[in-house]
Amino acid sequence: MLTVLAQRTARGLINFTYHILVLVGSSVAQALNGGVIAQRQSVNALLRIRNASSCASSSSTIMAIHAEEPRGLRLLSLDGGGIRGLSELLVLRELMQRIQHQDKLPSPPLPCEYFDLIGGTSTGGFIALMLGRLRMSVDEAIAAYGRLAESVFSEKKWMGQDGMFKKTNLEKAIKDIVGKATSPPNPEVRMLDPRPEKEVCKTFVCAMAADNMNASIPRLFRTYPSPKNASYDCTIWEAARATSAAPTFFKPIDIGDTVKERFVDAGLGNNNPTMRVIEEADLIFPGRSIACIISIGSGQAHVIKLPKSSGMFQNILPLQVVQALRDIATDCERTADDLEKHFRDKPDVYFRFNVEQGLQSVSLGDWDKLGEVGTHTQQYLRKNTVDQRVSIAVKTLREAHPMVESSELVQEELR
């Protein structure tokens, strides 16, 4: 009896122990299994975090690369043309006003805030200095331009070797503008811009050495250091005077310290300085691509005709200058046509604006026809084709995507 009881007790203990072991084993197994699952879940979560972080990091890296990628250069070229230069300012005003509207700005932006480089010849050179070096708004430049035109061109003098108009009036008008645009007022401010590099709109004007005009190679007066062919460290008014010294209109100007050179404007062969602007961009912005080139003319004029026979006029100017004057009106559009052909496959890079009709009868010194220049320019801007090109130009200026290498254009010109 005791034996049977002992056996049953023993079996009960064994079964109990077995169930305990099963339960414990099951719990341990579940615990172990749960631990593995938890561990896997934790690892997966960490992997997801790492992957998300990696994606975010990659995205940030890509964004940083794009942010660091330099935008395309925005270049502005301004033709010569006497008082017809007002037309160039009116075209620029339209561009700046459209940018103001699209960017919802309180006032039109300054051209120096949008263009990396501005180059001009003669009246275009003077406008370039007002907008680039003096950082004037377009409206300020228009007002100053009107005052200068009247004070300089309203008083003629007898024809002679010193030109039709008084150089003293021109110099005084330029100095007045420079003095009012600088703080503190200083009409003797020099061309080299002391501002930090990122704040500078690089600007140059074209002039010609009076003793070597047949070479058609302009001398550039710059507001920035150049790696080669350094400019004279002259004042702003001297550079403006040099680029404005149109033969037969104003006496040449002597510039230099110990050795002086005589300069006249570069309208003789370089009245449209667009290629000079491109060449200069390639020189001072190596490796940077161009987003857009805005080239503005002062209106198409009649081809200038001068007597071929020797006489009083050739006593004033050498024969090669007389011959160059006959070509000055067609030279601008020849340059424009060449660039149009080059950019045929990329029409949204190069923009040429030039009033086609109405300004032919306006001569360089007709200051009393400024209203006429304004009327014909506004009519030109209202043309559908011109309006569309202005809209595309504004879009290109705002986006500034790199489009073409300046070195390609320079190399093609050399071929």
From TrEMBL:
Lineage: Eukaryota, Fungi, Dikarya, Basidiomycota, Agaricomycotina
Pfam families registered for this protein in UniProt: Patatin
Gene Ontology molecular function, alphabetical: calcium-independent phospholipase A2 activity
Keyword Cytoplasm on entry: no
Transmembrane segments: none
Lipid metabolism among keywords: yes
Keywords attached to this entry: Hydrolase, Lipid degradation, Lipid metabolism
Listed PROSITE patterns: PNPLA (PS51635)
GO cellular component term of the entry, any: membrane
Catalytic residues of the enzyme: S122, D265
Motif annotated as GXSXG, chain positions: 120-124
Gene Ontology terms: biological process: arachidonate metabolic process; glycerolipid metabolic process; lipid catabolic process
Domain of life (superkingdom): Eukaryota
Protein name in UniProt: PNPLA domain-containing protein
Ranges of residues in domain PNPLA: 76-278
Motif (GXGXXG): 80-85
